[in-house]
Amino acid sequence: MLPYTDKIIDTITKYLPKNENEWELVGFINKKKEIYTFGNDSKIIGRLFEVITLEALNNSVKELGYTLHESEQQTVYPDFYFVKPNGRKIAIDIKTTYRRSEKAKFGFTGGSFTSFMRNGTKNIVGNYFDYDGHYILGVVYTREPKPTTGKVTFESLDSIIPAYKNIETFVQEKYRICGDKKGSGNTDNIGTITSASIKPFVYGAGPFSILGKDIFHDYWVNHPRYTDSEEMKQSLYNNIDTYIDWLSKTDKPKSLELKKLYSDYLSQYDETFNKK
């Protein structure tokens, strides 16, 4: 299994901060030069990472010849998007998470599978079918167990212990890192693959990287919703194996093809990431 990359991934990655000090924000400052540290609030930290990555995105569109735009509403997908000279869009969603331990697996959410993926226009800037690509810029960090809290004078800036450390990043096409499980049981969000290492995310090593973008779309637009009846859920599927069984009822040759591809994927993933 080889890592996937393209000009979008290469360009954004090139401009992302490489030095951890460039990610190190320590608090909010007022005109009295008083610093209010922000602690371990993951929502605040996620928003700060969006601010940091904005410069990389601005530099990227200049090189690519695109324009950069930000969603005007926080709940509308995507966080940012590029517009090409022909008017087509490229979605850039910023996702952050923290490591719960050195060996614990982490993952992200890949957005809703019941809104714009199904009707084209719900909770998205423009129309889903106006986008040529969907990318996730992921940031993984470790929480600092004893960060500085409260108000600190500007003269004591250097004494502040940041709320996070050990930053790792990746940029990858969304479908290539999404898995076949929901992000959580009581929502209709797509879950990504999970790993204790960032390597599979850098590689774009999710199952749909082998099965294909069309299968990713078909899988999630037909996946049972949280509010569906138990009878409906039982008639559909909840993982790739049962999806292939479901597909075999209407397209036996395609299901056999996918079964072989999925088996090959599992072997390749194990060989690349789990080999001792």
Instruction: Supply the helix-strand structural class.
Output: alpha+beta
How much helicity do the residues have? Answer: 25-40%
* Anisotropy-based shape: globular
Number of strands: 11
Mean pLDDT: 94
| CATH topology type | ECO RV Endonuclease, Chain A
CATH A-level architecture: 3-Layer(aba) Sandwich
Largest sheet, strands/sense/barrel = 5 strands, mixed
- The topology string of helices and strands comes to HEEHEEEEHEEEHEEHHHHHH
Number of separate helices: 10
Overall tally of structural domains: 1
Radius of gyration: 20 Å
- The low-pLDDT segments are none
| Beta-strand content | 15-25%
Strand line-up in the sheet with most strands: 3-4-5-7-9
Layout of helices and strands:
Elements: H1 7-15, E1 28-29, E2 34-36, H2 42-64, E3 67-70, E4 80-83, E5 89-99, E6 109-112, H3 116-119, E7 131-143, E8 151-153, E9 164-173, H4 174-177, E10 178-182, E11 189-192, H5 199-203, H6 208-211, H7 213-222, H8 230-235, H9 240-248, H10 252-273
Parallel strand pairs: 5-7
Antiparallel strand pairs: 1-2, 2-8, 3-4, 4-5, 6-11, 7-9, 10-11
Structure characterization notes:
The chain has a single domain, classed as 3-Layer(aba) Sandwich (ECO RV Endonuclease, Chain A). Helices cover 35% and strands 23% of the residues. The protein contains 10 helices and 11 strands. The strands form 3 sheets. The chain has a 5-stranded mixed β-sheet with strand order 3-4-5-7-9. β1 and β2 form a beta hairpin. The longest helix has 23 residues, at 42-64. The two termini are 16 Å apart.
